[in-house]
Amino acid sequence: MPAQQKKLLFCTAGLLSLACALGTAAAVGSQLWVRGSVLCSTGALLVNASGPELHKFIGAIQYGLFSGQRVRQCGLGGRPLQFSFFPDLLRIIPASIHVSVILFCTVLIVFALVGAGFFMFNAFGSPYETLHGPVGLYLWSFISCSCGCLIMILFSSEVKIHHLSEKIANFKEGTFTFKTYSEQFANSFWTILVCSLVHFLNALLIRFAGFEFPFSKSKESGTVTGAVDLMY
């Protein structure tokens, strides 16, 4: 492939990695990871609410990795409450999983920036054979993509398997019990998915630029060279 086309591909990949780093950083500080609604089941059972009356007992909830907001509604009007995971909810959430999600987000940002730098260096500089060359580009893209997948898996398990929304909704609730009425992942969660796909796309761009996958090298050349050496 001509050098100009390779530079264009590497510049594109570098800009995509930089955009992923910025997008992940914005997602980490956002409260738009999960949106949903919670039902005040205790209040609904007390008045035997159904149909249109049930909406008076449905509150809203949204949260991210550090903070969020829930609207407590038990038939007497909604009351918004702000909360933070650290240190308020640290006792009731699966802390090890939650901290792991934040840690992998940090790793994803760091390696996305590293990958962007090396992509630009390969576009405008003289690449080395190891970390600056094809092996390094595949490595940074693979690590970033893997971190994005781990973030989604861990956070999904925290929300769905450990019922994170219900734990937040029932925090410091002695009288009423809340159940998850509806729940869906919001923009920041899908941003991580897009970033993971972009890093996978970057690996394809490296291959399209003419670089073979670094861990699959042909042994035919070494065999032929050895046979020639024996002849002489």
Explain this structure.
The chain has 232 residues and is of the alpha+beta class. It has one domain: Butyryl-CoA Dehydrogenase, subunit A, domain 3, CATH 1.20.140. The chain is built from seven helices and five strands. Strands 4-3-2-1-5 form a five-stranded antiparallel beta sheet. Strand 2 (58-63) and strand 3 (67-72) form a beta hairpin. Helix 1 packs antiparallel against helix 3 and helix 4 packs antiparallel against helix 6 (187-208).
TL;DR of this structure?
The protein is 56% helix and 14% strand.
What is the topological layout?
Layout: H1 3-29, E1 34-40, H2 41-46, E2 58-63, E3 67-72, E4 79-84, H3 95-124, H4 134-161, H5 164-169, E5 178-185, H6 187-208, H7 220-231
Helix pairs in contact: 1-3, 1-6, 3-4, 4-6
Pfam family, one: Clarin-2
Signal peptide: 1-27
Transmembrane segments: 97-123, 135-155, 189-209
